[in-house]
Specification:
One of its GO terms (cellular component) is membrane. With 337 residues, the protein is α+β, with helices and mostly antiparallel strands. The protein folds into two domains: 85 residues, Phosphorylase Kinase, domain 1; 237 residues, Transferase(Phosphotransferase), domain 1 (Orthogonal Bundle). The protein contains 13 helices and eleven strands. A five-stranded antiparallel beta sheet has the order 1-2-3-5-4, with helices on both faces. A hairpin with a 6-residue loop joins strand 4 and strand 5. Helix 4 packs antiparallel against helix 10. The two termini are 39 Å apart. The C terminus is likely disordered.
Length: 337
């Protein structure tokens, strides 16, 4: 749907600062009310550069093909400005990052965190395998997960996303993403596959369990992932888990931690698929309903179930050695190439 600049100016009271929802280096997002009374979010770029135009074209092309309850919907666009503006459905409740990292000892309940993780996993499994052409999001992080009034998750920001050619397993690109969430193997090789999204999702799972900000660990000796994996291998997760999660999660936290560690394995081919992650997370919520589905999914894809670790399969020495390379990546990522 093409929307005129005049309509957007009226909808936002000439892009009044009071209508700002947020923004960053690339642009500002405004709340607007269109003439048909639809409440929308309008992304207005700050600068005229080719990269912004390319990302606009990319996002329109991708979102116009996606129809999933956990992906933000593109309502229309305005082509009258040098860099076109995108108009989305208005998601009223901020980002997962906003809710998770509030001041004070309590944040989202564990049940809500687990459900949001499952909804995000469902959307990524859809993008990777159910969309007309498979799509890699390339920037999964808590600030790109929007929440509505009932805390339903909506994956947003597809400007960096890429199609996976049907005849290929991945593609080579200039590295793009967010430090702390970025797949180390993608960082080193430039080779992008859907397993890069799975790594980023694993980091977000760790963030949900710990309420630690992945990028804030970049200046410390160990990254959040390396620290979490080491404590997991040693059986000392209580040292890093959010106390609220310890109180509310019961016996589910062990399984979620196991899934997260599988997602952030250094070698992409050793990580599960997003569909396997979705099934395993749902199995934590409703164990009896999903056990056979998980087993069937693994067997159908020829995947060894050990790709999702159990406590008996842990090896402190092996995990620590594996993450020595990631620690090197964390250090080198302070000086991006």
């Amino acid at each position: 749907m093409i929307i005129t600049l005049e309509e957007l100016e009226k909808a936002t009271n000439n892009f009044d600062k009071a209508r700002e929802l947020g923004g960053g280096g690339h642009g500002t997002v405004y709340k607007g009310i269109l003439s048909d009374l639809h409440v929308v979010a309008i992304k207005k770029p700050k600068m005229v550069v080719q990269k912004e135009i390319d990302e606009f074209i990319n996002e329109v092309a991708i979102l116009s093909q996606i129809n999933h309850r956990n992906v933000v919907k593109l309502y229309g666009c305005c082509l009258e400005t040098e860099v076109p503006m995108l108009v989305y459905e208005f998601i009223s409740n901020g980002t997962l990052y906003d809710h998770l990292h509030i001041e004070g000892p309590r944040s989202l309940s564990w049940d809500d965190r687990l459900r949001i993780a499952i909804e995000t996993a469902k959307s990524l499994a859809y993008l990777h395998s159910m969309a007309l052409i498979p799509i890699i999001h390339r920037d999964i992080k808590s600030s790109n997960i929007l929440l509505d009034d009932t805390l339903i998750a909506k994956v947003a920001d597809f400007g960096a996303s890429r199609y996976i050619p049907l005849d290929k397993s991945g593609l080579t690109t200039m590295v793009q993403g967010t430090l702390g969430y970025l797949d180390p193997m993608y960082f080193y090789t430039g080779r992008l596959t859907e397993k890069s999204d799975i790594y980023s999702f694993g980091v977000m799972l760790i963030e949900l369990m710990t309420r630690k900000k992945p990028f804030s660990y970049m200046a410390s000796e160990d990254g959040l992932v390396a620290h979490f994996v080491t404590l997991f291998a040693e059986g000392n997760l209580s040292q890093i888990l959010d106390p609220q999660v310890l109180n509310e999660s019961g016996n589910t936290i062990e399984e979620i931690a196991t899934i997260a560690v599988a997602c952030v394995k250094l070698r992409g081919e050793e990580r599960p698929t997003m569909r396997q992650v979705e099934l395993r997370l749902e199995g934590v919520q409703s164990p009896d309903e999903h056990v056979m589905a998980v087993v069937g999914e693994f067997e159908a894809n020829g995947i060894d179930r050990s790709s999702l670790l159990t406590r008996d399969e842990r090896s402190t020495e092996g995990l620590t050695r594996q993450y020595s390379m990631e620690e090197e990546c964390i250090l080198s990522s302070r000086y991006p190439r």
